[in-house]
Amino acid sequence: MKYKRILLKLSGESLMGNKSYGIDPDKVNEFVEEIKPLIEKGIEIGIVIGGGNIFRGLSEAGKMMDRTQGDFMGMLATVINGMALQSVFLKQGIASEILSGLKVEKIADVVSPLKAKELLKEKKVVIFTGGTGNPFFTTDTGAVLRALEINADAIFKGTRVDGIYNKDPEKFKDAVKYQGISYDEALQKDLKIMDSTAFALAKDNGLPIIVFDMNTKGNLLRLIEGENLGTIVN
């Protein structure tokens, strides 16, 4: 296998399915079905999920509070998403554990790199929630941080499109896809792969980022096995 330990980054919005907000159980099941073959092959997997599917439903409330409060709300939303994902793993007999950047004692242990690596060695899926535990950082930054803490081989960022394009392929039919791109070129072209803090952290530590279509069945496994899908940034 090309990759032995990965960090999978999923947006909160991806859990909505066809809903306007919230969690679509069918979509969560689909994601677990995509991840399951990797577990069966012994791949160690950490997951970071965003909270936009829940936080978006509270966006009007955001007008009444400052950025710090809003960010903590978003972090709590990721805990809810992590619980939803874990419940499906448990139903399918897959061992998993939630770790959180925020202290939520009855739900998850606080993130510790040593604990996370121990769990991964035990072949448990580690679901990282609660962001970095601090405001002003996105879940993209949290994903890069957790990937570095567990010594992941790469970040796999699941999206709705099959890689990185020079412009939005959902809006422009003439958009051109990159098979591979350097960190510097991606920054110069302002391709919005991740926010600038997350991307700079990945670049400084030489952490590859693979952007791919998570909604196409079997893509994740094919990538793990070395098939040339999506776009790699390194």
Q: Quote the average pLDDT.
A: 91
Rg of Cα set: 17 Å
CATH homologous group name: Acetylglutamate kinase-like
What's the SSE pattern? EHEHHEEHEHEEEEHHEHE
Instruction: Quote the distance from N terminus to C terminus.
Output: 19 Å
Number of strands: 11
CATH class, please?
Alpha Beta
Looking at the overall shape, the CATH architecture is 3-Layer(aba) Sandwich
Shape: globular
Sum up the structure in keywords.
234 residues; 8 helices; nine-stranded mixed beta sheet; Carbamate kinase; 11 strands; globular; two-stranded antiparallel ribbon; alpha/beta
Can I get a quick summary?
This protein is α/β, with parallel strands linked by helices and 234 residues long. The protein has helices spanning 25-40, 52-55, 67-91, 113-121, 139-149, 183-188, 196-204, 219-224, and strands at residues 5-10, 44-49, 96-100, 109-110, 125-129, 154-159, 164-165, 177-178, 180-181, 209-213, 231-233. The chain has one domain (5-233): Acetylglutamate kinase-like (Carbamate kinase, 3-Layer(aba) Sandwich).
